[in-house]
């Protein structure tokens, strides 16, 4: 999952990015509203953390313009604790949730997981697909109760597919949502990681749709 953090406080921006990366997300960052607006308007993100009080262009304006341009990614807005009017303005502008400063980073991560689950139509922190289970909160994967040892790249790829169970996901979409702007989009990294995942899962669940991409779904025989 790819996240954008738009926060002008450089220490807070760094803390959020480090926590997100440790949790398995790919993170892009911006320090003002103009840069943040551009990234959110041109890159596909699974969610955005957006501060209201930004230089160049405030967060409310950034969010309103995204929504006017049909950018529908979930947005978690950061507000000042004593400014209830900011919270109302953020929700009215199209924010999906907000966290008041100062906050615990763990709360931000929990709210972000909830927004991503909601966007995917999921109600639980655990995603199940046949014998495969992925715990988004603990970043753990099991098959028939057997824990899988995955690299961070393998985990991100599997998590994205499982957030879109039964749907064909193109290679381009995977690259755009799993890697930052500097990734070599002409490489065959996705194919390599899909091959590794198939071997580690040990059950035929990831299907290659020729010319279109990949689809994960429960095996017809239940994995037996």
CATH class of the largest domain: Alpha Beta
Strand elements, count: 11
Count structural domains: 2
Classification by helices and strands: alpha/beta
Q: Could you say which overall geometry the principal axes of the C-alpha atoms support?
A: elongated
Main sheet: strand order: 2-1-3-4-5
Largest sheet, if any? 5 strands, parallel
CATH architecture of the largest domain: 3-Layer(aba) Sandwich
- Give the percentage of residues in beta strands: 15-25%
Query: Please, what is the CATH homologous superfamily of the largest domain?
Result: Response regulator
Order of helices and strands: EHEHEHEHEHEEEEHHHEE
CATH topology of the largest domain: Rossmann fold
Pfam family, one: Response_reg
Domain Response regulatory: 2-116
GO molecular function: phosphorelay response regulator activity; transcription cis-regulatory region binding
Keywords: DNA-binding, Phosphoprotein, Transcription, Transcription regulation, Two-component regulatory system
What does this 3D model show about the protein?
By secondary structure, this protein is of the alpha/beta class. It folds into 2 domains: 2-119, Rossmann fold (3-Layer(aba) Sandwich), CATH 3.40.50.2300; 126-216, Orthogonal Bundle (Arc Repressor Mutant, subunit A), CATH 1.10.10. Helix content is 40%, strand content 21%. It has helices at 10-22, 33-42, 59-68, 84-93, 105-119, 152-162, 171-178, 189-201, and strands at 2-6, 26-30, 47-51, 75-80, 97-101, 126-129, 132-135, 140-143, 146-147, 206-209, 213-216. The strands form 3 sheets. The chain has a 5-stranded parallel beta sheet with strand order 2-1-3-4-5, with helices on both faces. A 4-stranded antiparallel beta sheet has the order 6-7-8-9, covered by helices on one side. Strands 10-11 form a two-stranded antiparallel sheet. Helix 3 links the parallel strand 3 (47-51) and strand 4 (75-80). Helix 6 packs across helix 8.
């Amino acid at each position: 999952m790819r996240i954008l953090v738009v926060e002008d406080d450089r220490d807070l921006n760094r803390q959020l990015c480090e926590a997100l990366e440790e949790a398995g997300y790919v993170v892009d960052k911006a320090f003002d509203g103009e840069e943040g607006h551009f990234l959110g308007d041109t890159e596909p993100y699974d969610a955005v953390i957006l501060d209201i009080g930004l230089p160049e262009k405030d967060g409310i304006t950034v969010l309103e313009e995204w929504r006017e341009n049909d950018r529908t990614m979930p947005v978690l807005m950061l507000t000042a604790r004593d400014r209830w009017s900011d919270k109302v303005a953020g929700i009215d502008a199209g924010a999906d949730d907000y966290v008041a400063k100062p906050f615990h980073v763990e709360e931000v991560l929990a709210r972000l997981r909830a927004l991503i689950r909601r966007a995917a139509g999921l109600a639980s922190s655990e995603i199940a697909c046949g014998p495969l289970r992925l715990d988004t909160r603990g970043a753990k994967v099991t098959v028939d109760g057997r824990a899988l040892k995955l690299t961070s790249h393998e985990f991100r790829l599997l998590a994205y597919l499982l957030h879109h169970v039964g749907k064909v996901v193109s290679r381009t979409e995977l690259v755009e949502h799993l890697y930052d702007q500097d990734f070599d989009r002409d490489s065959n990294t996705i194919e390599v990681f899909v091959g590794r995942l198939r071997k580690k899962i040990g059950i035929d669940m990831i299907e290659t749709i020729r010319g279109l991409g990949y689809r994960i779904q429960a095996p017809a025989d239940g994995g037996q």
